[in-house]
Structure formats: structure tokens, C-alpha cells
Design a protein that fits this description.
The complex is a heterodimer of chains A (151) and B (476). Chain A has a five-stranded mixed sheet, sandwiched between helices. Chain A is 32% helix and 15% strand. Chain A is built from five helices and five strands; from the N terminus they run ββαβββαααα. In chain A, helix 2 crosses helix 5 and helix 3 packs across helix 5. By secondary structure, chain A is α+β, with helices and mostly antiparallel strands. Chain B is elongated. Chain B starts with 8 loop residues before the first strand and ends with a strand. The chains are: A alpha+beta (151), B alpha+beta (476). The interface between A and B is large, with 41 and 43 residues.
């Protein structure tokens, strides 16, 4: 079985995994990192959204080979030693989460958006297609704007 | 592996290739299909594709939406003729099947041993799940320990507990603890749905008063045999269906519309249905709120003024007035855009919703929403607002965007790609929820706002486009 090395939430990891195993299952079933969620397995619900080198990706659509030598950040690694990421804090302040299942992906998507645009417009926020079945979209929008104002 | 059509059965299967694949532990036949157990979910998924199954037919093979529609239409009794010198407003509505589509697919962990079983499952009816597991593996209820764990929002789906039973059966067969998960395709094609429904409505008016109001609903039989449904069975409500008892207890008209008749006839199909947020009211009261707007037009009245005049209670009027004031009802808007309003009272609570819609683009967009609730004593105001906002998104989704087609015994949609539940770009840019009242016993709110939201969206769509919405979702 091939072996892969990458940086996961700031730590170097080495994992033996089948070459065709989606990174989602490498993270969840082999490495025990369960923040990224399975919702569809085909990249449309986006509950598994993580960062690779700071960009939002759906880890159900990647394999471990795709991230060799790269920095993978899941929701578990978003906060720094100094405290929560501003997006996480905004999520708490706006009381966004309902059931919470999609929220790791929503937060990672929002954080990536704010990496690329400091003050995203409503049209930019509309580009987020992560599904939230509880319908927290209005509070997600408010939280993104609130985080943007503090970053 | 689950069957190609709803409730199909395994005739025979060959797992020899699958059993040779990496990580595979066992292949087990279940009443619902063939389960593959492997060390990781991915290995189980890949081996699943290598199991060759010959399927026996399902329970609704050959049945499509049109066949169901014919029976639903036939199940609606003749409407009462309008007396001479009156005017009548008639409308017929159809609502598609809708999967609950919980983000978290069906899942459970089970460890069945000789003389005992332990199950971990997110369940809304844990005692039902415990009994079902006991029956399935041949234990007494006392021998089954069931741990209720937190689960993803399921909007009615986890009243049922098929994954717990399946996990227990697999664990018993292979003598190991098992974590069982459905795939998204499993959930979309073999999960439960809100029943497809038809509605025939008639309001008769004369000299500015509504004399009679009649709503005949028919739907595919709703399986209420768990949770509230079981409580109704225990209380002796069984005829003609549990659903009709539930319907008669849950439906009431908030308006002084003279002689009110509301009936439900259910048509039986052996397919998996379950209560979906707001149960019958999600369709029945949405249809009624659309009719109220059409009745207002027939009476030459504004929709808010019409509701104000006919609402039965001052509390309802206060909730309506709140959205009309805060939402600036009646403001001048561009052609192709409009406001819509609706109200719903149930669970000892009242909700009103006012939305603005923009129908000028490729697809309609609700751009703004104002909601008001009177739920009695308010325990968690932020949670109350969250329930209203979530119900608004359900209203937008089920009226404009999403449903499930039944094609020859199988559901067409397979994932969130074709089950187009609202995304951020379908949600309003602003949503304000006002809590008023605040005294008396706390009422329910989790399911309260769906009909008000759905009705407001449909009414706004009608006012923006000049079309009468009749089948839902509108973009199906």
C-alpha cells in the first residue's frame, strides 16, 4: 500500500492508504479527523470542505496523492494558539449553527473566501454553494460580513 | 447494495469477487438489500459495486407520478355546488414528493452478542428503535441497550430507524460491532419522503362575506406509525387511516370563513413516507394561504386587509400587522418583483411571513423576508428566530426549487446535484424575525413557520408574475 506525507493541521503526517481512497476517508477513517463530513461523496454538498494551501477544496474529490507535500487544514486546525479564527468567533456571535453537520464545511468555505477577498460582496457570498439543510444561510451571510469587518 | 426500485428484494447474489477485495470483512443479506462490511467506508463502497445481485421487483414498479396523480384526483370527492347569487373561487394544487434529505445520512452503530445488544443511534423515537432492534435480532426489549446520540437535522426522517435495525442484523450475522452508513444515493432513492398530494379548494362568497370554505386533500398515505402516530394509535384513532385522524386534529382554519370543511383522503402505496417538517400543514395550509390571496382578489381586497378582516383572533391580527408594518407592505415595487404574505397558526403559536421576490432573472429569488411569531413564553429567542429562518428556507425550497420525481417505481433524484435544495444564492439577503406577545404557555415553533413561509413565497411569485401557481415546486 502506498505511503503519503503531507502537513495536516500544522503537523507532518505519514499515512499508508489505497491510492484511490478519497482524502475524505483517509482523514476520517485512517487519521481519525472527523471534522470534514460525508454528505454526498461527489463534491456537491460540500460538507467536507477543507483547505489545501489555504484554498477551499472538497476532500471527497481528492486523494492523498493530490496533497503530498502540501498543507491540509481541516476545521480542527483553523483556530490558532491565540484563539478562534475570526470566522469561528463570528459564527458563535451570530449563533449560526443549528444541527451543525454542514458547519465545518461552511466555516472553511467562508474562511477561504475571506482569504481571497477581504470584504466580499453579497454576490461573492452567493457563490458559496455549500448545502445547509437547516437553512442557516441568512446568519452565515451576517457572520461572514461580521468576520470581514474584524479581520 | 440497495435495489433499483423502491422496496425491491434480493433474489440471489454473488459476493465472491467482493469478498476478495481489500479490507472486506463480510457480505450480509438483509431484508433491504446486501450489506458490505469493510475496514473503511471507502473499501465497503468499492466492494459494494462488485457484489452482483439479482433483484426481485419492488412494491411500486410500473408506478410513476402520473399514475399516482390519477388516483389522487379520483380520491377527491365532488365539491359542494355554490348556491345561486354567490361567487366562488376554485383552485387545485399539487405538491411533489420531497425527500427529507438530511445532510447526515442514515447511520447507526450496533454490537449484538448472545443475549444482549447495544446500539448507538440518533433517534427521535428511541423506544421504537429499541423495540424494532429487539424484534429483528430475537431479543427482549430489556436486553437491548440503546444510546441516543446527537444527530444531524433530519426534519422528520429520524422518527424512523432503519439503519439501527440494519446495523444490528449485520452485527448479529458477523458477530462483530458494526458502524452502518447509508450512501447519499441510498438516502435519496430509498429514504422516506413527504407524500405527493393534491388539493381542491373552493370558497364561496356573497356581499363581501365568505359563506363556505372547502378544502379536499388527497395524498399518498403518510406512514405515521412511529412517534405521534403511535400515540394516536394507542389513543384509539385508527379509522380510516392514522393520517386522517392526525389531519383532523391538526387542521384548523384561522379565518372566519363561514362553514369550513377540510378533509383528507389517503391513497395507499407500499412506499417509504414519513412526516416532513409541518406534516400535512406544509402543503394543506400553504394551499389555503394561496387561496386566501385569490379570494382577496375576487373580493377586490388587498391580501393583508383581507386577512385582517377575516382572522379569528386579535393575536393573529397582531402578528400579521407586525410583518405588514416592518416589511413596509404595499410599497411600490418594480415590474417583475413583488411582495407576498401568509399566516399560519398551529402548536399554540402564530407565525406570519412577508417576502419580496424578484422574478426578472433566470429563476425567482426571494430577496427579503420579514417574519413575526407569537409563540407564547419565549425561552430561547435566538433559537426561535433560527427555527423561523430555517423554515423560510424550507418554504423557498419546496415552493420554488425542490422535489422528487417517481419514475417507474424509483425516485429520479440521487444527490444534491439534482435535488436542488436552496443554496446561499436562493436565500434572501436580509431576513428579520420579530418575536411578539411573549406571555402564556410556550407554544411550538420547530414546524410552525413552513406554511407561512411557503404561502408567502407562492403569493409573492403570483403577484410578481401574474401567474397562478398550481404545482409545486414551480421549477420541477
Amino acid at each position: 500500500m502506498p505511503s503519503y506525507s503531507f502537513k495536516l493541521n500544522g503537523e507532518n503526517v505519514h499515512v499508508d492508504a489505497p491510492a484511490d481512497m478519497p482524502l475524505l476517508w483517509v482523514l476520517r477513517d485512517l487519521l481519525g479527523v472527523t471534522g470534514p463530513k460525508y454528505g454526498c461523496g461527489v463534491g456537491v454538498c460540500r460538507a467536507c470542505t477543507c483547505h489545501v494551501n489555504g484554498n477551499a477544496v472538497q476532500v471527497c474529490m481528492l486523494t492523498a496523492a493530490d496533497v503530498v507535500g502540501k498543507k491540509v487544514t481541516t476545521i480542527e486546525g483553523l483556530a490558532s494558539q491565540d484563539g478562534l479564527h475570526p470566522v469561528q468567533q463570528a459564527w458563535l456571535d451570530e449563533d449560526v449553527a443549528q444541527c451543525g453537520f454542514c458547519q465545518p464545511g461552511q466555516i472553511m468555505q467562508a474562511a477561504a473566501l475571506l482569504n481571497s477577498k477581504r470584504n466580499p460582496s453579497d454576490a461573492d457570498i452567493d457563490q458559496i454553494v455549500n448545502v445547509c439543510r437547516c437553512g442557516t444561510y441568512c446568519r452565515i451571510r451576517k457572520a461572514i460580513k461580521s468576520a470581514a469587518s474584524k479581520m | 447494495m440497495r435495489p433499483p426500485t423502491i422496496k425491491g428484494k434480493v433474489k440471489s447474489y454473488d459476493a465472491s469477487a467482493a469478498l476478495q477485495m481489500p479490507g472486506v470483512v463480510a457480505v450480509t443479506e438483509l431484508p433491504s438489500g446486501v450489506a458490505v462490511t469493510a475496514k473503511t467506508f471507502d473499501q465497503a463502497l468499492k466492494a459494494k459495486s462488485a457484489v452482483h445481485v439479482t433483484w426481485a421487483s419492488g412494491t411500486v414498479d410500473g408506478v410513476s407520478d402520473a399514475d399516482i396523480d390519477a388516483r389522487l384526483t379520483a380520491a377527491i370527492p365532488p365539491m359542494t355546488p355554490a348556491p345561486p347569487l354567490t361567487q366562488r373561487v376554485d383552485a387545485t394544487f399539487e405538491f411533489a414528493f420531497v425527500n427529507h434529505a438530511p445532510m447526515e445520512v442514515g447511520s447507526a452503530v450496533a454490537d449484538v452478542q448472545a443475549g444482549s445488544a447495544e446500539v448507538w443511534v440518533a433517534s427521535k423515537s428511541p423506544t421504537g428503535a429499541q423495540s424494532a432492534v429487539a424484534d429483528a435480532v430475537g431479543l427482549s426489549v430489556d436486553e437491548v441497550t440503546l444510546h441516543v446520540v446527537r444527530g444531524g437535522g433530519s426534519f422528520g426522517r429520524r422518527i424512523y430507524y432503519e439503519p439501527a435495525v440494519e446495523a444490528a442484523l449485520v452485527s448479529q450475522a458477523i458477530k462483530r460491532p458494526v458502524k452502518l452508513m447509508w450512501t447519499r444515493n441510498d438516502d435519496m432513492r430509498h429514504g422516506r419522503v413527504r407524500p405527493r398530494s393534491h388539493h381542491q379548494l373552493r370558497a364561496v362568497h356573497a356581499a363581501g362575506d365568505v359563506l363556505t370554505y372547502e378544502h379536499r386533500m388527497s395524498c399518498v398515505e403518510l406512514d405515521l406509525g412511529s412517534g405521534t402516530g403511535q400515540a394516536l394509535i394507542d389513543a384509539g384513532y385508527v379509522n380510516p387511516t392514522i393520517g386522517t385522524a392526525f389531519f383532523s386534529l391538526s387542521q384548523s382554519c384561522p379565518y372566519n370563513f363561514g362553514v369550513v370543511t377540510e378533509t383528507l383522503n389517503e391513497v395507499s402505496y407500499d412506499m417509504p413516507t414519513a412526516a416532513w417538517r409541518s406534516v400535512y400543514s406544509a402543503q394543506a395550509r400553504t394551499a389555503e394561504e394561496i387561496l386566501v390571496d385569490e379570494l382577496a382578489k375576487s373580493l377586490g381586497t388587498d391580501p393583508v386587509a383581507m386577512r385582517r378582516k377575516f382572522l379569528k383572533t386579535t393575536d393573529s391580527r397582531a402578528v400579521l400587522d407586525k410583518v405588514a408594518t416592518e416589511g413596509n407592505w404595499g410599497r411600490s415595487m418594480s415590474s417583475g418583483t413583488a411582495q407576498g404574505v401568509a399566516l399560519h397558526a398551529e402548536y399554540r403559536s402564530i407565525a406570519a411571513c412577508l417576502v419580496e421576490i424578484d422574478c426578472r432573472g433566470d429563476k425567482p429569488r426571494v430577496t427579503k423576508a420579514v417574519m413575526a411569531l407569537d409563540v407564547g413564553r419565549q425561552v430561547n429567542p435566538s433559537g426561535l428566530r433560527a427555527q423561523a429562518m430555517g423554515s423560510l428556507i424550507d418554504g423557498i425550497s419546496t415552493v420554488l426549487l425542490v422535489g422528487n420525481h417517481l419514475d417507474d417505481g424509483a425516485f429520479r433524484e440521487g444527490s444534491y446535484s439534482d435535488f436542488s435544495y436552496a443554496r446561499q444564492a436562493d436565500a434572501p439577503l436580509a431576513c428579520d424575525v420579530y418575536l411578539i406577545g411573549g406571555t402564556g404557555k410556550p407554544g411550538g415553533v420547530g414546524e410552525l413557520c413552513v406554511p407561512a413561509a411557503a404561502g408567502a413565497v407562492a403569493n409573492a411569485y403570483a403577484r410578481a408574475t401574474g401567474k397562478k401557481p398550481r404545482t409545486f415546486p414551480i421549477n420541477f
